[in-house]
Amino acid sequence: MQVLKEDIRDRILAIARQQFAQNGYSKTSMREIAGLAGVGVGNIYNYFANKDELFREVVRPVLYALEAMLQEHHGIRGEDIMMMRSEKYLKSCIDEYVSLINTHRGLMEILLFRAQGSSLEHFRENYTDRSTELVKAWFTSMRQKHPEINTAVSDFIIHLHTVWMFTLFEELLMHSVPQQEMETILHDYILFEIQGWRAIIQI
Fold first, then answer.
1. Four-residue CA torsion sign, 68, 190, 111, 157
2. Cα separations in angstroms, 65 against 34, 167, 169, 183
3. Cα–Cα distance, 53 to 50 (Å, whole number)
4. How many Cα atoms occupy the beta-carbon half-sphere of 146 within 13 Å?
């Protein structure tokens, strides 16, 4: 029986993903999802408390991936700032962005373009605000480790760093950029970013 229940839950998630991608959060109803999944509308609430919980569960993999990326660079697992000098750092950033889009393209489109009306409607803004605070804290810790660097960077510049990242993702998704061209674009963008930060931080 437990296997059957898990199968129903997976079916609900699969249908919900299709509906959210096609119609967006606000124009998708639990009744529609239940009907397409072959589940009673009352029964669907045994699996998900409400539409917002279902939406968050659908996009959870990309939320986790974006959080991991944030923590990897500036949070609890933040790289040493001097890594910005290395080719390895450049390649790892490119690989990370390519993997994120290739693995979660559909979910990123739902999260970034179809979330209006959900609790994730302002995800980009909230993520950007958290990123700004994390980068500021990371700069402080790096300044203690490397007193010679310049970390007198305005909050607005740090804020723009994440805004540009989301703009990049959105443009790549909207224009369905082919794989090889995407990798070239990401290489140039990340090189541009790293060289800019190196000039500001003076490393």
1. positive
2. 28, 17, 14, 19
3. 5
4. 13
Q: Is-contact 194 85, C-beta < 8 A?
A: no
Distance separating alpha carbons of residues 33 and 39, to the nearest angstrom: 8
Quote the CA–CA distance of 33 and 15 in Å, as a whole number: 6
The per-residue pLDDT for 72 is 81
Q: Which tens digits make up the pLDDT trace of 54-66?
A: 999 999 999 999 9
Nearest to 158 by CA among 201, 98, 113: 201
DSSP 8-class letter at 84: G
The greatest distance separating any two alpha carbons of the chain, rounded to the nearest whole angstrom, comes to: 64
- What's the angle, vertex CA 88, arms to CA 183 and CA 189, rounded to 5? 35
Here the tokens at position 60 are 């959870």
pLDDT tens digits, one per residue of 146-180: 999 999 999 999 999 999 999 999 999 999 999 89
